[in-house]
Design goal:
By secondary structure, the chain is α/β, with parallel strands linked by helices. About 25% of the residues lie in helices and about 25% in strands. The chain has one domain: P-loop containing nucleotide triphosphate hydrolases (Rossmann fold, 3-Layer(aba) Sandwich). It contains 5 helices and 8 strands. The chain has a 6-stranded parallel sheet. A two-stranded antiparallel sheet has the order 3-4. A hairpin with a 4-residue loop joins strand 3 and strand 4. Helix 1 crosses helix 5. The longest helix has 14 residues. The radius of gyration is 17 Å and the shape is globular.
Length: about 170
């Protein structure tokens, strides 16, 4: 069970369903309201790394460092070697400096987490029931790039409604 220490929103959906567009809307809306956010993106590609082969940090990692950090005048990044199964509570260590955590992906893992608000992005209306059957907790919105049903927000058109619903969810936590 995930026990987030700040309001957490999961943007869930299949490939090319609008998840990233929805995350952008949410993060920009939070920033406008002077709230800070952390995003956590699930990458399903096996052997994915944010680092590039041959860089100094890649060499540190390959040598066996448990934690590799980079620091520049623009950003700080930390890579943590961790072979354990995913535990969403591990993200709480980073949330002490933010107001809201926004997850992208993790579809079925976070769909069942009661304390996480859900924004479900649909490619077509046939996907709706597949998500709603396992939904636990708060459904903030159904979204799509296409016109599906009157209860589905259109990404790029109903962005203000999506932002307001996320903000209202965050106020309840």
């Amino acid at each position: 069970m995930f026990n987030p220490i700040v309001p957490s929103v999961a943007v869930i959906g299949g490939k090319s369903s609008g998840k990233t567009a929805a995350v952008e809307v949410i993060v920009q809306a939070l920033k406008k309201r002077k709230l800070t956010s952390m995003t956590v993106k699930h990458v399903s590609q096996s052997d994915f790394s944010v680092d590039k082969k041959g860089t100094d940090t890649w060499r540190h990692w390959k040598a066996g460092a448990e934690i590799v950090s980079t620091v520049s005048n623009l950003e700080k990044a930390i890579m943590v070697r961790d072979g354990r199964d995913l535990n969403f509570n591990d993200f709480n260590i980073w949330t002490k400096n933010v107001d809201v955590t926004v997850f992208e992906g993790f579809s079925y893992s976070l769909l069942r987490e009661e304390k996480v608000g859900k924004v479900i992005c649909l490619r077509d209306k046939s996907e709706k029931d597949n998500y709603l059957v396992d939904l636990k907790g708060t459904l903030i919105a159904l979204c799509s790039f296409r016109v599906l049903e009157k209860d589905t927000l259109r990404l790029g058109i109903d962005d203000n409604i999506l932002a307001e619903r996320v903000f209202e969810f965050c106020k309840t936590i």
